[in-house]
Specification:
By secondary structure, chain B is an alpha+beta fold. Helices cover 32% and strands 18% of the residues of chain B. Chain B contains 11 helices and 11 strands. Chain C is built from 12 helices and no strands. The chains are: A mainly alpha, B alpha+beta, C mainly alpha.
Amino acid sequence: MDQVISALDPFTGFIYPNEYHLQWELLIVLYPYLTGLVAGAFILASLERVFQVKALLPVYRLALLSALAFLMVAPLPLMSHLGHPERALEMLATPHTTSAMAMFGFVYAWYLMVVLLVEIWFDYRADIVHLSNSTKGVFKYVYKVLTLGATDVSPKALDFDDKAGKLITIIGIPSAFMLHGYVGFIFGSIKANPWWSSVLMPIVFLFSAIVSGMAAVLLIYMVTCMIRWKPIDMSCVNKLSEFLIYAMLVDFTLEFLDFIHRLYESEESIHILGQLIADRLFLSLVILQVLIGGLLPLFGLVMGRFGKLPDELRRMVYFISCVLIQVGIFSMRWNVVIGGQMFSKSLRGLTVYKVHMLGFEGLFAAIGFLILPLIILTVLVKLLPPWVDKHSEKAAA
Amino acid sequence: MISEKEKNQNSEENVSEKTESKKGFGRREFLDAFLKAIPAGMTLLTFGSWNNKLHAQTPDDTKTSRPPTDENNYAMAVDISKCIGCGRCANACKLENHVPIGPHTMRTWVERYVIPSEGEVVVDSPNGGIDGFPDQQLDAHILRTFYVPKLCNHCANPPCVQVCPVGATFQTKDGVVLVDEKYCVGCRYCIQACPYGARYMHPEKNVADKCTFCYHRISKGMLPACVEVCPTQARVFGDLKKRSSPIHHFLRFNPIRTLKPELNTRPKVFYANADQEVR
Amino acid sequence: MKTGKVPQQLVVLGCIAAVVVIGFFTMRALLIPKSFGKYGHYRADAIEDVRALPISYAGVSACAECHDEVVKKKATGFHRNVSCEVCHGPAANHIEDPTAIKPPAPRLREGCPLCHNYNPSRPTGFPQIITVQHNPGKPCMTCHNPHDPVPPVTPKECSACHRSIWNQKSVSHHAPLECTTCHTVPKEHFKNPRLNVVGKPTNNEFRGKCHSKDGQPGKELLDLSKVAPKIEMLHAGRYRCWDCHYPHSPEGRQ
């Protein structure tokens, strides 16, 4: 009923004149969502590589490629929401050291070029050299370029690849933490906005990123297995969902702590934030983020992992839970980004947000940006097959 | 605030003009007729002083104009008890600075506060107050009601400047926060960081835009447009570094508060007689 | 690696890294504007860009150059602080070309109500009218010279400037009382109200005239005081009456 009333009377109370238009729209919801998937997928990969969780081997390379695909798309929504995208390089030319956003270019470049690309290259180099010899036509040349001229596949060289890859993964873990923790800091450091301003914001973002990234890789793995008519490695999926449960518990605890803290401190803004949750964010926060996207999949995963279920049902439960987790984490990004702009900084009123359909910042563009990484991933997978069953000799080694 | 050289020029020309008006050109009709009769060159001569002041934007003049220094620190003060809510300031700002017409792009605006004896405070600002304020029908008994003009606070510790990723918004040495519209990437982070809602996205230029304290005017020794047109002197503009500035008198004799002081933005728009409900 | 030979992979990556770094610094060198960083982390030329913006409002001193008569007249009137361009609009272009461009002069009722239409949020003492009742349809200029807006007759009604208070009083139990029953009004108040404020009652005995049992009201209040609620003079204690009761609306919700 509240929703109906607020739809009829979109603006309640007083908002400053300039607050009528929301500044950050759907695309900025996508941006933390996508970088979150990157960070989560990479941390999943590092579990296998650094922490030697061998059960996760089937998804290791898939996780790396997914991270790359999402990372390549992550800056696109940012770019297309700029008022002057042609000036974007200014962020690299004259970065303002006090600005959290200015560091994005550098964190991104570091993560893309020093961590992800190099790691994937070291990991795949032997395969690429092998493929450049065995394929024909255009692909032969593509692989030749991808070797970058380093065609040494002697055991010593392969040993170096392995060590270098491991070293980069170790560097990569704090980098992944930085990449996404920093996204949280962009919001958490805005003292003008009581909904955002919180020290917990970076770490909440980080753990929700890990949750969403792991769930995404699990989904991608299950879907690719179905497409390829290969059996799903149940020990891998079980292990993955176990880690997912732990990450979700931490994430949930942190978000709950943030909520309790705000409620208990009960600052000047609590009144309007209460209205915000009750009136504007009830569906996306309470229903979608907490119930459908949080508690329900957590329950499902616990049942699936620790309950006595047949494998068929277990896979189904995992699959549905992971889809729900994506819904939940996307809602969380929405609630932060859009929710933070739906109340007036005068703390006297609420505004509304209508999603545009067309245009660079519209719904279709957003859907495009969500599909694009999947297309890139398909290309990457075709180019650099991550399947472990084809490389059983590597798995054995 | 006018540079010494300019002042001398002005006074010289003023003298010549006054002598002319003593000869009998004082009356407007007379002057009009006279101006119609004389060639354009003569017109320029007569109004040399104003041309001088108004055309400082010619390239030659700007080259010689003084860079801002920390010898000045501009600030504004607003006396709530004098504001009549006529909205002329918001109107003049739109005209002076070619601010996009419309109620959601405001460099300055006037809010009306109605504080009832019980219940929620009612605040509104229809079209920034430019078209006046309609009558309000409130059931509750009104305790107090008043107007509050709002604008960029030109904070001494500006959060918008802190977050700008490229250095497109900045604080000049004389304490004014400006936007470089040729350099702004339009990321809108500054709009999010401003606690006062003083910034907006310019719909045509696609850059952040805000009050400049009429920097083009004050650097020529003129008053900001909103201060110029305020009929009740509710707005006072001055230089905190100059003891003789009207803002010193204002700060000395009025109980002062700034908006949202808890955020440590250290605003330089000072409010006198502002209610605690103002935020 | 013990052979002392640098692995092939490192050589390749090192070369690429060098290219990227050199490319980055070349890009920076090309992209950074000339004046950037002169005074701080911004383009110094941006200051000149802002300074060079055109001026629309010429300022009152500019008007005084030619229209000295009007300015002189205005200087002593109530509108002495009202800049010419408040009513006549921005006039910088008029100064550039005084003959061709004439600023508008509002002659009907469009401008004045913006300031003088009654609105309770305006500070008390500011002259206000109810536009629809006040000589409807007549241009303001027929009675008031905007450059020296003295009312044709000094308003006897205090409501001309204090309508909020007057409105409140007129629906209260004190409606039959004149303002001057309690306030003394110096003549100068009509000319320079802020410097010559009205007198207010200073002690409880004043109110005791009507509201105590043995009070001695003046002749004109004799009838009214009979229906006034009576209290003991000790009722107030150390307070004065208006510490609790608002005299303009004295129901005093306890």
